[in-house]
Structure formats: structure tokens, C-alpha cells
């Protein structure tokens, strides 16, 4: 990956593929590797794909103290500017979807099309992580056993049908081994996500918008996706039956095709 100077910080990024630019904004505790090669490979057939690590992750600048979703949206805008990209298609998932919402609201000129996956907008009707999943994740985190914590994270992020998929889990483990996110950074991101609320402003988004959500999402239940789509004028909602939070990990080719058809089909 390469380093871009974005204001006073540096962001670790990668540009691959060919076509119109597509900026991918990762979620909480994730790294640029968590998109998974099958998904990225499918996207590179149609787009110049730009992935990056948030502050505090990978080779990006260290994160000291708190951060907000709005500040991370400014980081995304600054990265596009640093790369000389005047506008791009944007995909944000989970916390990255929150960042994408702020980016579309504050910098509409940068957004060609917007895709929000497995995300949350705050306000009435929104809901956070499933209680059972939260209890399991918390217990695993507090155990001090990293392997147990990774496994609990896996089980909370994929559907019941894929939770025992050994090959898919092996790829998830390999990513965790190659690049991890420090607990203080995850906590700062969690606090930023908890404070996020764009519900009263989503009606101002003008970019063509696709919302994707799986029905078995334990981290941010599917009602969040339905709410976001209802609040953005003209938004298209794609519900993936029987799929968990990491829909792009479970269905990489299908997910890439949804984004491709949304971004590259004339309105």
C-alpha cells in the first residue's frame, strides 16, 4: 500500500483495477484487508478501487484520543483530494456507511453514486447490536483470549449458514493475523459510531443511493437498512435473505454486481 498526506495526518491506501473510481470505506475494527480478495477482484473488473485504513489502523497515522464520524468523513474527502480525484462512487459498510452518509451530506460534489451497506443512521427506529451477540462478544473480549475474541467476532458477523464454513473462516483468520486493530482504536471508533445520528438530514442526500442489508445481521439489524432507505430520496433497497453483517464476505460476486449495476447503469 501507499501513503497519502491528508492534512496533518497520513492514510495508508491502495489503488487497483481500472475504470471509474470507487472509494471503499471500511467499518469499525476493520482494515483494508477485510474487504476480502474475492470481493475486491470482482470490483476491479469495472472500477479503479481505492481502499484505505482509518487513523490508528495499519500504517495510517496513530490515533490519540477521541474521533468523530464527521472527522473520519473529512479524512475520506481529504484522501480523494490528495489522490487528485474530483468525484468517485462510494461504498461504506457499517461504521463506514455512517462515514459515507456524512461524506455525502457535507461533500455532495464528491459523490457520483452512494452505496450504504449494513449500516445505521441513528434516530427513532434505529437499533444497535443484537443483545445475545453483544453478550457473547463482550465475554470473548474480556476473556483476554485473542483467538476466542476473533471467533466470537466471526460468529457475530456472518450468517448461521456460513459460521462453520472452514475455508471462509480461514481467510478471516489470515486477515486478522496480517493486520489487527488496537483495542483503544476500536473503542474510539465505537464511541464515534454510538454518537452518530444523521436521521434528520438524510433527506438532503442527492446522490443516487443503494442500501444493502442482510436479514441475519446481528451487529446492526436489518431494520436499520430499511430505515436508511426510507429517509434518502429515491434510494433503492436490496435485502439479502439469510445473509449476515459481512454480506460482501459471504456473497462477494453478488455484492460486486449490485454495486456495479447501481454505479454504472445510467439513471
Summary keywords:
alpha/beta; globular; 267 residues; Rossmann fold; 8-stranded mixed β-sheet
Q: Which architecture name does CATH use?
A: 3-Layer(aba) Sandwich
The arrangement of helices and strands along the chain is EEEHEHEHEHHHHEHEHH
What would CATH call the homologous superfamily?
Alpha/Beta hydrolase fold, catalytic domain
Q: What share of the residues does DSSP label as strand, in percent?
A: 15-25%
- Give the uncertain stretches in residue-range form: none
Percentage of residues in helical conformation: 40-55%
Q: Based on DSSP secondary structure assignment, what is the total number of beta strands?
A: 8
How many domain regions?
Answer: 1
CATH level 1 class label = Alpha Beta
- Major β-sheet profile: 8 strands, mixed
Walk me through this protein's architecture.
The chain is an alpha/beta fold. The chain has one domain (2-264): Alpha/Beta hydrolase fold, catalytic domain (Rossmann fold, 3-Layer(aba) Sandwich). 41% of the residues lie in helices and 19% in strands. It contains 10 helices and 8 strands. The protein has helices spanning 37-44, 69-82, 95-106, 131-142, 146-157, 166-178, 183-194, 223-231, 247-250, 252-264, and strands spanning 2-6, 9-17, 20-25, 47-52, 88-93, 111-117, 209-214, 236-240. An 8-stranded mixed sheet has the order 1-2-4-3-5-6-7-8, with helices on both faces. Strand 5 (88-93), helix 3 (95-106) and strand 6 form a beta-alpha-beta unit. Helix 1 runs parallel beside helix 10 (252-264). It starts with a strand and ends with a helix.
Amino acid at each position: 500500500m501507499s501513503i497519502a498526506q491528508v492534512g496533518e495526518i497520513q492514510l495508508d491506501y491502495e489503488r487497483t483495477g481500472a475504470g471509474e473510481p470507487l472509494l471503499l470505506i471500511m467499518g469499525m475494527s476493520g482494515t483494508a484487508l477485510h474487504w476480502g480478495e474475492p470481493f475486491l477482484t470482482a470490483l476491479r473488473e469495472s472500477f479503479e478501487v481505492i481502499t484505505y485504513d482509518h487513523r490508528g489502523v495499519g500504517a495510517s497515522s496513530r490515533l490519540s484520543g477521541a474521533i468523530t464520524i464527521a472527522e473520519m468523513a473529512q479524512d475520506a474527502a481529504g484522501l480523494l483530494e490528495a489522490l487528485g480525484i474530483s468525484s468517485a462512487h462510494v461504498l461504506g459498510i457499517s461504521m463506514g456507511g455512517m462515514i459515507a452518509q456524512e461524506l455525502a451530506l457535507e461533500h455532495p460534489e464528491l459523490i457520483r453514486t452512494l452505496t450504504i451497506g449494513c449500516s445505521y443512521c441513528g434516530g427513532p427506529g434505529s437499533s444497535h447490536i443484537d443483545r445475545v451477540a453483544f453478550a457473547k462478544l463482550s465475554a470473548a473480549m474480556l476473556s483476554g483470549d485473542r483467538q476466542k475474541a476473533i471467533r466470537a467476532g466471526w460468529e457475530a458477523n456472518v450468517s448461521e449458514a456460513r459460521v462453520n464454513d472452514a475455508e471462509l473462516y480461514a481467510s478471516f483468520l489470515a486477515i486478522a493475523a496480517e493486520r489487527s486493530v488496537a483495542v483503544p482504536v476500536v473503542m474510539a471508533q465505537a464511541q464515534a459510531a454510538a454518537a452518530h445520528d444523521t436521521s434528520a438530514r438524510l433527506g438532503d442526500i442527492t446522490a443516487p443511493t443503494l442500501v444493502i442489508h442482510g436479514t441475519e445481521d446481528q451487529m446492526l439489524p436489518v431494520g436499520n437498512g430499511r430505515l436508511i432507505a426510507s429517509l434518502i430520496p429515491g434510494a433503492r433497497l436490496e435485502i439479502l435473505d439469510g445473509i449476515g453483517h459481512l454480506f460482501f464476505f459471504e456473497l462477494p460476486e453478488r455484492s460486486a454486481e449490485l454495486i456495479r449495476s447501481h454505479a454504472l447503469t445510467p439513471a
